[in-house]
Amino acid sequence: MKKSINVQETSDVRLSIDILKLEKYLQANLQNLKLPLEVRQFKFGQSNPTYLLIDANKNHYVLRKKPPGQLLSTTAHAVEREFRILDALSKGNTQIPVPKVYLLCRVFEDIRLLSLPREVRNQCWYLAIETLAKLHKVDYISIGLESYGRSSKNFYSRQINSLLKITKVQAQVKDENGNQVGPLPKLDEIIEWFKRNEIKDETSIVHGDYRIDNLIFHSTETKVIGIIDWELSTIGHPLSDLASLLLLYYIKDTGPFIGLRDIKDLPIPTVNELIKLYCEKLAVIAQGLTARIFRKQSSSAEAKLYLGLFKPIMYQAYEFLNSIL
């Protein structure tokens, strides 16, 4: 951070960046940061996109990130090495004039995680599942979120009705030549399928957009240090989050989507493996809650509602897995 950077050396952002996500992450991790941020990009050449961040107090920060998309070289854009040496020189009292570095994190935009070794890829996906299972077992009533969602009942019906209203408006939007966006194909058939296959109500905190690229991983260790992008969060059906996370397993690799549907040798765990892990983690978490109740260690007044829940969860997991394997 510095107070005087020549803003003329910057331009409007050329390589897009999600400013809202950036603000949420920095606000959670930098004590003196005051929103909103003004974001500009440095003009002069650099192998890694470099941005100037100016907060509401006129403090200046520099953000360095890897280029978007799949990288041709795994070593040419190693901002983590840059962070490590700057941090060491700064904290080691070396008298070497280097800028202070504040944060280093990893956000993976490609669900295949091809920049990582196979074993680490698997661990990252397992962590994503474990973190989601933990989120879904949070007692939202005990932390004051009972009224956070409009209603815990008929979640999918309410979601469908809401999306139908949105798509009706969007379909009527016209461009400058009068061409309409038009309706979604096969929408009626899909709605009918949901009506025929109505899902039994379950209730938990729902993130609303739970994906690999909304998780922040530790810079060197294999662990999730943050979940971001909570604006769609509510109280609803937990399987909607699981579906969001696993969606790309069920679509083809077309356009901007990295679909995994037709890939035989997956570079990451299979969808059945992840579903099985999710079911197991839910059961283990519920079993742990039951054990704490037995030992009178539970802090929640509503905890007894979950007593013994791990057994039916395991039976459901077993039945579900038999149906898909």
Could you say which overall geometry the principal axes of the C-alpha atoms support? globular
Over all CA atoms, what is the radius of gyration?
A: 23 Å
**Major sheet: size, sense and barrel closure?**
4 strands, antiparallel
Question: How helical, in percent, are the residues?
Answer: 25-40%
Order of helices and strands: EHEEEHHHHEEEEHHH
CATH fold name of the largest domain, please?
Aminoglycoside 3'-phosphotransferase, Chain: A, domain 2
Architecture (CATH level 2) name of the largest domain: Alpha-Beta Complex
Question: CATH homologous superfamily of the largest domain, by name?
Answer: Aminoglycoside phosphotransferase (APH), C-terminal lobe
Number of domains: 2
CATH class of the largest domain: Alpha Beta
Low-confidence parts:
297-303, 306-311
